[in-house]
């Protein structure tokens, strides 16, 4: 559940967007009003022997209508964009405290347990997860067998290749998939808890585990 502060911030952002839209709309209306007053004044003071060309007046009115329409469209799109950003912030805030899978090859061993994922574009006859320490040395290989296309998970019990307990800490992994004797396209997914949500120029981003600046679009699965 988002906190009261996060909800208030999102509400304030929505109200600010509405106020900005109203201000812009008012400015467009004022511009149109000034143009019409100028046009009426121009027509009142025109030379009776050389009146304004009707086609010219019609053209000016059409141009004003086009500009006004574009302004209104821009206001509507901006209000929609601001509203979507506020809604996205609320959705992201609800993810705090939940585990997610995002692109990455890091894995944290905590209390003898570790968890990760992978994404296959097509099914594989066999899948291997190779876990390495900070020096790049192989710690353990986990055979997962055949896997369907899509997102899958794997778990490590914290034991190395010799059966000894590995020390808790940060490791990396490589996912390798084989289909019909050839390498299959697979990408690693890193597990982490959503710690916080930020909103900046790049939109709404998440802090996931030790990773910062994770876009909402990068979240492959919420666990």
Question: Could you please describe the fold and organization of this structure?
Answer:
With 223 residues, this protein is α+β, with helices and mostly antiparallel strands. It has two domains: 4-93; 99-222, Immunoglobulin-like. It contains two helices and twelve strands, in the order ααββββββββββββ. It has helices at residues 4-44, 54-93, and strands at 99-103, 106-109, 114-120, 124-132, 138-147, 150-156, 169-179, 182-183, 186-200, 203-208, 211-215, 221-222. Strands 1, 3, 6, 9, 10, 11 and 12 form a seven-stranded antiparallel beta sheet that branches. Strand 10 (203-208) and strand 11 (211-215) form a beta hairpin. Helix 1 (4-44) packs antiparallel against helix 2 (54-93). The longest helix has 41 residues, at 4-44.
CATH architecture of the largest domain: Sandwich
Distance between the termini: 15 Å
As for the number of domains, it is: 2
- Mean pLDDT value: 80
In short:
The protein contains 2 helices and 12 strands.
Question: What's the structural blueprint in terms of helices and strands?
Answer:
Blueprint: H1 4-44, H2 54-93, E1 99-103, E2 106-109, E3 114-120, E4 124-132, E5 138-147, E6 150-156, E7 169-179, E8 182-183, E9 186-200, E10 203-208, E11 211-215, E12 221-222
Antiparallel strand pairs: 1-9, 1-12, 2-7, 3-6, 3-9, 4-5, 4-7, 7-8, 9-10, 10-11
